[in-house]
Amino acid sequence: MKTKVTRKEARKHLEQFHLAVELV
């Protein structure tokens, strides 16, 4: 797994994950 992920990218992924969870 690549651990080199910028905070902005990680933040975007987290927000998308939250949106997906809320949609369910």
TrEMBL record:
Source superkingdom: Bacteria
Protein name: Uncharacterized protein
